[in-house]
């Protein structure tokens, strides 16, 4: 099963967050649709599957690193990944404080790769490249799937050549709308 291009598109996601925020639970739920309650905390696991997202066949890998990973191993996982799921628990405030720290580490690590991040990290596009979802992994699989699919879409969009990106199209559309609105105002 492949997309319009005839090829499977590789998408690599890394799941991060403070301890016990449900990282493994989310991965297992997405892969198997099941919530089993207790998970192995020690091992690093890469989950792999294929999914069709917007008619694009995606070869998806989700890396769930071990809770005691070294800083070097964390950075190498960040370099490996195309997209990130940052988890915190709404019942433990301390786990939320970990999110901006991880976000900063991701930005720094990716920037040091010398990619085109200066452009993509400008204020306007930053918003488009992040999503926020509140969900219970235990309650429903649909919210988990929607969240992972949303991130895959962001990654696919980011991988497209610049003129093809939805964000680029949106910028053009907004610019045109502004221009049209302005000229209409001038006629008045
Ligand atoms: N009630 C409830 N419990 C959850 C939910 N998600 C995960 N848990 C529980 O939270 C605990 C931690 O989940 P894990 O998936 O092991 O968390 P983790 O972030 O992978 O943990 P570490 O690998 O130690 O960092 C487990 O007992 C899960 O059953 C949820 O949505 N609701």
Automatic annotation (TrEMBL):
Its EC number is 3.6.5.2. Pfam families: Ras. InterPro entries: P-loop_NTPase (IPR027417), Ras-related_GTPase (IPR051065), Small_GTPase (IPR001806). Keywords: GTP-binding, Hydrolase, Nucleotide-binding. Gene3D superfamilies: P-loop containing nucleotide triphosphate hydrolases (3.40.50.300). It catalyses: GTP + H2O = GDP + phosphate + H(+). Belongs to the small GTPase superfamily. Ras family. This is small monomeric GTPase. It comes from Seriola lalandi dorsalis.
């Amino acid at each position: 099963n492949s997309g319009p291009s005839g090829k499977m598109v590789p998408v690599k996601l890394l799941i991060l967050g403070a301890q016990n925020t449900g990282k493994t639970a989310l991965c297992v739920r997405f892969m198997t649709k099941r919530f089993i309650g207790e998970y192995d905390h020690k091992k690093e696991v890469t989950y792999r599957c294929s999914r069709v997202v917007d008619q694009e066949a995606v070869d998806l890998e989700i890396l769930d690193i071990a809770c005691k990973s070294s800083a070097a191993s964390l950075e190498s996982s960040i370099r490996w990944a195309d997209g990130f799921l940052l988890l915190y628990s709404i019942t433990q405030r301390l786990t939320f404080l970990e999110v901006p720290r991880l976000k900063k580490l991701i930005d720094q690590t990716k920037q040091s790769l010398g990619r085109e991040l200066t452009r993509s990290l400008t204020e306007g596009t930053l918003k488009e490249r992040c999503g926020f979802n509140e969900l219970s992994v235990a309650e429903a699989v649909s919210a988990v799937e929607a969240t992972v699919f949303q991130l895959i879409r962001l990654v696919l969009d980011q991988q497209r050549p610049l003129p093809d990106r939805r964000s680029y199209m949106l910028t053009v559309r907004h610019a045109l709308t502004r221009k049209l609105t302005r000229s209409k105002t001038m006629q008045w």
